[in-house]
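Let us practice reading a record.
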Amino acid sequence: MKSFVCHESYYNCNDGCSILKATQYNSDGPEPLVEISIYPMFPKYRDWKIQLKWIWQILTKQCVWDDQIILNKEEMEKLGNQLLSLAKEIK
């Protein structure tokens, strides 16, 4: 399945500590996919404990990031509806 980035959106955390990135992919499959990633705004990467954690994750899980998720259409709709209902409650 070939896929390419169609659109990227960025959202800032309210306290300014993180960024949420939503990336939409168009694919040859039956439906587009969305990847949601969370990145820190300040560089904590130089801390040796964090570097050891990443090394351990690469060796054991073959993956550095535990804060990314790829959603299909059904899951995108569930997340979107939940966010809309929460936004309506705030008004």
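A brief commentary: The chain has a mean pLDDT of 76.
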